[in-house]
Amino acid sequence: MTPDSPLVTVVLVDDHRMFRSGVRAEIGEAVDIVGEAPDVDTAVALVRQHRPAVVLLDVHLPGGNGHGGVDVLHGCRGLETTDGRPVRFLALSVSDAAEDVIAVIRAGARGYVTKTIGAADLTRAIHRVADGDAVFSPRLAGFVLDAFGAAAGELAEVDEELDRLSAREREVMRLIARGYQYKEVAKELFISVKTVETHVSSVLRKLQLSSRHELTAWAMGRRLM
User: Fold this and answer.
1) What does the radius of gyration of the chain's CA atoms come to, in whole angstroms?
2) Is the pLDDT of residue 2 over 60?
3) 3-state secondary structure of 54
4) Residue 37 β-bridge partners
5) Which of the four pLDDT bands, split at 50, 70 and 90, describes residue 152?
6) For a FRET experiment, which of 73, 132, 206, 219 has its CA 20 to 30 Å from that of 177?
7) 190: Cβ–Cβ under 8 A, 6 or more apart, which residues?
8) Residue 105 burial (CB count, 10 A)
9) SS3 breakdown of the chain: % helix, strand, coil, rounded to 5?
10) How far is the C-alpha of 40 from the C-alpha of 69, rounded, in Å?
11) Per-residue pLDDT for 153 more than 50?
12) pTM
């Protein structure tokens, strides 16, 4: 985003007013929070009214059919922003339970982060989701990979695409697919950020993919943790 670019528009959905106030105070200058909602029905109405780039969505909410954030996702299915891009959803919850993560991702959320996330990381996550990336807190990515892996939980004994990658490229690919930032990958593997960037470019080229989102989907299909 350039200095002259408009701020990413956000609708904040959480049933705790103090939490909403805290999020607004922490990231309100980095994004444009155009509305707040404490329950399912208000959230659906606000999202339909404002058509934001990103909806920050709590998982457990009153109202609707009793399914919280999933009901909001169902009520807003197919909505687009004023510039024709999909309205995207990022779950922001205190829960790190596998069933909660899987439920909202199945319903259409683009990512899931827990409320322990810092303001800077949350802002980056919002921008990444707005750009179409999938974003997960690192330990939650495994739930998604498990749930959306190969249909029978099996891989071919020989995977020609995977065999194109070097051992280091496979390590980098797995971490990137789990939602790690380049700096986090560099720290985990004791390499430089520049080296991570080089490996990611090589992985995308070898697999004929064009984005981190496509890489995540590719890894999910092979149950690569």
Assistant:
1) 18
2) no
3) strand
4) 13
5) very low
6) 73
7) none
8) 22
9) 50, 15, 40
10) 7
11) no
12) 0.65
